[in-house]
Structure formats: structure tokens, C-alpha cells
Request: fold
Amino acid sequence: MVEMEQTVDMVLDIERSKRPRANPIPRPIPSEELICDTSKHYPSSEACFPMDMTAAQSWTLSEIFGRPIKGSCLATDLHGSPTESVCIKIPNDQDVFVSQDSIENKKSTGNSRCYILPTSEPFEMSLPQQALQTIAPLPSPPLYASRSFTGHGQQKGGVQSLLTNPSPTTPISFVYFETLPWFMKPYLHNLNAQLLQSSSPDPHLIDSIYYRPALDRERGTQLELRITVPPASTLRLTYDFDKAILRYTEYPPDANRGFDVAPAIIRLLSPEEAVDAGVGAGAGAGGVYLRITSLLLPLPTPDFSMPYNVIILTSTVMALAFGMIFNLLVRRFVGADEVPKWEVAKLIRARVGNRLARKLTEFREKFQKRERRGKEEKEKKVQ
Reply:
């Protein structure tokens, strides 16, 4: 018999998750929905000092994830009973509304409850806005981890990871794994691990290293470190890298946004794994994986508008050159002494005389037509 358990933990911004899907742009809260602190000496209709929230926000599964849970887990326990598919860590004195036909099981700890989902109906969970009378205890994580870029410029950079062991008595061992894109070329000779309490790097903090270099445009760099952090200490892991220059066809449409770098994965070693590796006992959190947030890497980006500027400038120069050459080839050049002399006065008289003669002829024709019409009318009257 094989039994497998998998859990997914996430941190959600409830206010941001409840924004409408069709219009997710954040907007300020309307003035009529603000709760102002009237104890201040300047409350008015135009000034409001918001009060701290004394109650938890209301939310439902449909508001956060867009839909309820459909169906239930088909696995059963040893006795053939349905398994608990959804659990929520909330004090037992808080109200939680769920769909019908679901079975609730409150744990004896008083801070957790689980539900057996119905097989035919969708499962919906709703938490109304209510005052926080008791707060569920938050267990301390076995490790704090963060990562960021260092340095400046378009040629080189650096990566800094801060790894903190909150345990005051027990060291913690883990495997730090990074997969870097091929255009990030790290240097191993300046890979340093240093405790913030000390002034110099300590090479004994890194127990082993596995490194696989990248191949341009084929695979990325794989870096895997086995690290042990002493109790109540913070380790700073740093290394430098070079930025490669991409071809212009390899840039995405939003190249100035930056390139995504995958998050680092940390696997905490159990005490048995730590002892087998010869690095001492761990903190007892084996099988736990942590993922650090991803990063945005700015790379040297060319001016993509330059091709259009070159095309416009080249087209303008070609049009001007073609017009001048065509004008020189087609136009006929004649010397000034070869042009016959024109008698301007005679030409003007001829043109004016032609126009006057034309006008007189038109007037004479109109007058003759009127005379004919008059004679025809007289003859009709005489008859």
C-alpha cells in the first residue's frame, strides 16, 4: 500500500484577488464606504483619517479563484470512508459557511477544521466579515529566503540571496537549486557564502557544489549547492555574472520590461539526510520545498525604432536623387540665342482682337435671333 500526501500553501492578497476579472484596475475606496476615525481633531466631509480594520475581510472561493470546487477526491482512508479534501486554519469560534451536503470536522486543536466535499454538487466556502476575537497561532517557518540583483550597468551584474535560520539552537541543512537562462553567465570563482555576523566569507558553509554550464541558445546554467546555516544566523550567498547580447529577433515585443529569471528552489534536508551527507543534524523539516520569487533581468536592448528611421531617411534621399536625375534626363535645354524673338505687342493685340471679334459675333447672333422672333410674333397677330 502506498500513501501519498501533497499540500499547497500560498499567500493571497484578498483585496486584490476580489477585484472583478473584467476590470482589474485598482481604484480608491468610495468615500461613503470609508470608516473614519472621529477622535481626530480634523474630521470633516473633505478630510478622513481611516481607522484600522478590526475585522477580517469577507471572501468566498468564487471571488478569489473565480469558481467553486467541483467534485471531491476519489481516494478513501483505510476504513473506506471519504477523505477530507479541504482544510482551513481558523479558530473554532469564527463563522464559516459552506455548501450543503458537506461534512465539517473541527480539530481538537481549536484552530483548524476540515471538510469532506460532496460528490455531485460544487463546494463553496464563504467567510463573512467578523471581528477577530482570537488569532490562530502562526508557526515559525524553518527558513527565511530572499533573492535580488546587485550591481548596475548593461554588461555585468550580481545575485544576492539571504538565507536566515530562525532556530536559536539547531542548524539547518538544505539544497539550494537555481536554473539560470543561457544569457546569464555566472562566475564560480567569486561565489561567496558569508554570515552577516562575520566580516569575511566562510567556504565551509557550502558543503558541496554541482554546476553544469550553459550552452548558448540550447540550455541554461544549473547550479546546485548543499548549504548548512548555523542557528540564529543569516547567510549571504553572492556571485557575479555577465549579460549576453541577444539577436534582435530574440527580443520579445516588451523587451524593455526585462527577462524573467526562474525562482530558486530550496529543499530542506531531514536530519537523516543531513547525517548521511556528513553535514550534521538538520532542523527536522525534510521534504519541504521553498520557492523564492522570480526576478526581472534587464538586458542591453537596441533601439527598435532605428530601422524605421533608416527606412524613412533612405526613402527620402532616394526620392530626391531620382527626381533630380529624372529631371536632368528628360528636360530639354535650349540656349537663349536659339529661342525665336516673340513680338509681345502683336501677340497681345491678336489675342485681344480675337476675343472682341468672338464677343461681337455672339452679340450679333443674339440680336438677329430676337429680330426673327419679333417678326414671327407680328405675323401671327396679323393672321
